[in-house]
Give the backbone structure.
Amino acid sequence: MASKDQPNFLILGAGVIGLTTALTLRAAYPTSHITIVAKHFPGDRSIEYTSPWAGANWSSMVHDNGPLEHYDRVTFKKFAQMVDVEGKGEEVGIGRMGMWGVFDGKIEEVGVLTEETGRIWYEELVGGLEELSKEELPEGAVFGLDFKSTFRINTQVYLNWLQAQALSSHIALIRRHYPSLISLLSDFPSTTLLVNCSALGSLSLMDVRDTNLYPTRGQTVLIAEPKTPIPRMYFRSPKRIDPETTYVFPRPNGGGVILGGSRQDGNWSAEVDVQLAADIMRRCCELCPELGRPEDLQVISHNVGLRPSRKGGPRIELEKWSNGVPVVHNYGHAGAGYQSSWGTAERALELVRKALGTSSKL
Ligand SMILES: Cc1cc2nc3c(=O)[nH]c(=O)nc-3n(C[C@H](O)[C@H](O)[C@H](O)COP(=O)(O)OP(=O)(O)OC[C@H]3O[C@@H](n4cnc5c(N)ncnc54)[C@H](O)[C@@H]3O)c2cc1C
Ligand SMILES: *[C@@H]1O[C@H](CO)[C@@H](O)[C@H](O)[C@H]1NC(C)=O
Ligand SMILES: *[C@@H]1O[C@H](CO)[C@@H](O)[C@H](O)[C@H]1NC(C)=O
Ligand SMILES: *[C@@H]1O[C@H](CO)[C@@H](O)[C@H](O)[C@H]1NC(C)=O
């Protein structure tokens, strides 16, 4: 019994994007029916499911002077609302922390400036970006920035929190794998609108392969928390997006410390590369003196995840599908799914409103 006020929303995917989109729809349509269908849910650890493998932190990589910056800004403000205003950072798994970002190239060449403004767009958002002094820079680095305060996310806690929010707001969860969208929609014939948050999983949907999608393999090492707490996050990179980025990332609330990383485009391998892991640990110990020596690190797990990268950036679009059911796409967030999640969900909501013909307030 779908009506404009009581639509039946069907969401494919239960990663950070599917769950956040579902909660955003719930807030806008309190009486709607919402169902999330997915093969994987929080708690699962599979190479087909990217969300559990993220670091994760907020550290914007975009500089389009447009929608992509907007998505990251909206998400930063949502995290700030939850942590600073509502005081529920512990429960949610998000905390504030400073970060040192170190670059091996000149500022104009490393992909951090917005061309139109000649500035780093998020300077005010993170409470200021101060240049690191020569003494603070590791050997060979060209410049570094001290992000006064950004966010780090314990993805295990955060994904479970998103799922608990979904359950307590009466969003139905169904675990199933669908080989095609036709088969999905024929099982849910009263669907008013489908939201597609299937990430790389789509490459196995027979009727809808988006060949702009490709995996960017990321390998990390989870280590025990050292007795002397690490005071900040660190990254070091030849430029903002680079296969050789090194990062050290203390997670809040018992999340351990994540060491990274790698960016291997087009590589589907789920196997741990032992040599790469050793290289990551060496690079991290060089960057973060608090870690000590590589041989003293207490390794808890080696992790491999595939970022859902997409030529042309994330796809957030409305499409009328062949059998008349509108589809809102929200996929292809690459290495930024957490930090853009609330912003892209808000954009998906605008498209849902458009599809249902209710005028948008936005
Ligand atoms: C090493 C690493 C570090 C990262 N660090 C950060 C970071 O610091 N900050 C940040 O913002 N991002 C980071 N990311 C990126 C982030 O993890 C991703 O952008 C995000 O998890 C993508 O979420 P998603 O919901 O789109 O996809 P996924 O989490 O992969 O979810 C896809 C969902 O769709 C379901 N699905 C797909 N196809 C089907 C089907 N046919 N039938 C049923 N179900 C289906 C799956 O089961 C799953 O539930 C990192 C990623 C990696 C690998
Ligand atoms: C769903 O998203 C995938 C990418 O995640 C895409 O290939 C596919 O075309 C989308 N489904 C529909 C209904 O178009
Ligand atoms: C994919 O990555 C793995 C692990 O680093 C590596 O061993 C392998 O050679 C890579 N494959 C390709 C095709 O690049
Ligand atoms: C921080 O986040 C960016 C994008 O969100 C990611 O690519 C990077 O690896 C992360 N770095 C750290 C320090 O965790």
